[in-house]
Every structure is written in structure tokens, then in C-alpha cells.
Amino acid sequence: MYPITQAIWQGRFAAPLRLAALREAGITHILNVCEAPAVLTVADGPFVEVCSFPIEDLVPIPIDVALDALETLHRMAAHPHSRVYVHCIAGCNRSPTILWLYLVACGVGRDVAEREISRRNIDAVPVHPRLIYPQLVERAIAHMHPRLPHPRPAALEFV
Q: Which fold has domain 2-147?
């Protein structure tokens, strides 16, 4: 589990073996971005919210799925005092890419977002070329624009 910003953590699958670490980190929301269904529930945390978006690894992320995931991540990160855990199976491709897309859509520079995610999770590939494509980035930025400025700016500050 890697803290990326003041409100967003990223890493491997949120499984029962990571429950103690999630609780210790104060995680309040979980965003699962892999094809495997979430195994933890709100009651396990206790968490405020647990959501899943089926994103297949090493396949271009469908725009509608990405926008729904970004909308959910935004709602979670905007929640007062939230700590959001964004995860996929290995924490290397999908979750860092969705997090990168979110940060960029919220106005963080592309290179800055990539560098900061990679610096905190050395196994992360936050702009995986098999997942991301220019049209997706453009649509994400356009989708998030009306929701900015971020209602909780500290959520975007890197740790």
C-alpha cells in the first residue's frame, strides 16, 4: 500500500490479508479497478464505500468505464477526511493508470503525476501504453473540468 496524495493510496488487491494495514492507514473508501469483484465490504472496515469497476489488464480502458471510475474516485476523494485506496490485482498497471488519469484530469501535470506515482510505488506503470490512449485522456479532462476546482484541494497534494 502506497500513499500517493494526502487522501489517495494505491496498491495491490484489497484482500482480507491487507485488512489490518487498510485499517491502520485509516482507509475509508475502496475503489477496485480490476475484473475480480471486491472481496471486502463496507462492514469489514468499517469503510464508508467500496466500489468496483471491471477493467481488464493490458487492454485499452473503455471511456465509459474510465469516466465512471473517475467520477467515483472524485466523489470519494472529495468526502471530508477520506482516505481512498485505489487498487487492482498487482497494483502495477490499472490502479496507477486510473489514478494518473484522475490527477491529470484534476489539473496535475502529466509528467508530475507519472513521476510522483512511480516514485511512491516503484512497480507502478501509471501511463501504461496498452491501457491509455489520447482520446481517453482528452475525455477524462473534459469530464472533470466542470467539477473543478477540487472541493478538497488537499486531496491532490502529494505526500
A: Protein-Tyrosine Phosphatase; Chain A (3.90.190)
pTM (global) more than 0.90: yes
| 92 Ramachandran zone, left/alpha/beta (phi>0; psi -120 to 50) | alpha
Report domain extents, the chain.
2-147
Distance CA 85, CA 72 (A): 12
The half-sphere exposure of 3 on its side-chain side, counting CA atoms within 13 A, is 15
Cα dihedral 35, 63, 32, 89 sign:
positive
**pLDDT tens profile 73-119:** 999 999 999 999 999 999 999 999 999 999 999 999 999 999 999 99
What does DSSP say about strands 29-32 and 2-3: parallel, antiparallel, or unpaired? unpaired
* 74 Cβ contact partners less than 8 Å away, ≥ 6 residues apart: 102, 106, 144, 147, 150
Q: At what angle do helices 94-105 and 134-144 cross, to 10 degrees?
A: 50
